[in-house]
Amino acid sequence: MVGTITLNSHCPSDPTAPVDASFLPGPVLLLGAPGVGKGTQAQLLVTKYGIPQISTGDLLRANKARGTELGLKAQAIMSSGQLVPDAIVNEMVLERLREKDVQRGYILDGYPRTLDQADFLDETIADPAFLPRLPVIAISIVAAYDQLLQRITGRRICATCKSIYNVYTNPPKVDGVCDCEGAPLSQRSDDTEPVFIERMKTFEEQTAPVIAHYRALGRFEEADGNQGVEAVNAAVETALFHLRNGRSG
Ligand SMILES: [Zn+2]
Q1: Distance, CA of 102 to CA of 54 (rounded, Å)
Q2: pTM, full prediction
Q3: What per-residue confidence (pLDDT) applies to 146?
Q4: How far does residue 174's CA lie from ligand 1's centre (Å)?
Q5: What separation in Å is there between the alpha carbon of 166 and the centre of ligand 1?
Q6: For residue 21, what pLDDT band results from cuts at 50, 70 and 90?
Q7: What separation in Å is there between the alpha carbon of 8 and the centre of ligand 1?
Q8: Sorting pLDDT into bands at 50, 70 and 90, what band is 19?
């Protein structure tokens, strides 16, 4: 049975919402360009299926905060201005995948980012000790360049109540002023076209080989991100069911 989720962008997800236990989502790599709403979509899947989101950023922060050996190594490398090598990231993910809450699946965010990481993950979870015994599937939320650009450059934020507006799609009643308490709206310094172009370039360069990897294995689908949150959610779920049900055995 496929349940529906009530969405209200102004309210946090209901933590008491029933978890859909009738479908085993397994490991899902969610991909999406800046501004595509990947975080929102990941959160919807997390809530619906009661599975965790595993992000390398969160893992790095958690390991640093706990002062683990991996965290200290990563910190030393990052403070010298270098990227944390695959071996350390892989090890952090491996530890995370040994925890109990991943047994029905998990949403991967920002990992695997390289072919080496993708190979490592595929080999790791092929070991029957890792639950659920399902391969990684990848879903990319795609939207038109101009729409993404508008979502980023049109974004305005109220520093007082944290409301988020968009001058193109969700403008305040009075230009430049928050509807809630009348505070002035501001634009984040990196919500500009040059920064967006740079981030898109990086995103495309980084994800192309990972997408090619999963596509070649028949474990990749795109979801149309040129629509509202609920419709994108439906498209992501369609891709998810298709990729899982198409799998034999
Ligand atoms: Zn406000």
Answers
A1: 9
A2: 0.84
A3: 95
A4: 12
A5: 13
A6: confident
A7: 17
A8: confident
Least confident of 8-22, 89-103, 112-126: 8-22
Compute the distance between CA of residue 71 and CA of residue 87 in angstroms, rounded to an integer: 13
The catalytic residues are: 38, 113, 155, 188, 199
The rounded distance, in Å, linking the Cα atoms of 108 and 53 is 6
Q: Which residues contact 183 (CB under 8 A, 6 or more apart)?
A: 158, 159, 160, 161, 177
Q: Which residues contact 147 (CB under 8 A, 6 or more apart)?
A: 226
- 169 Cα to the center of ligand 1, angstroms: 17
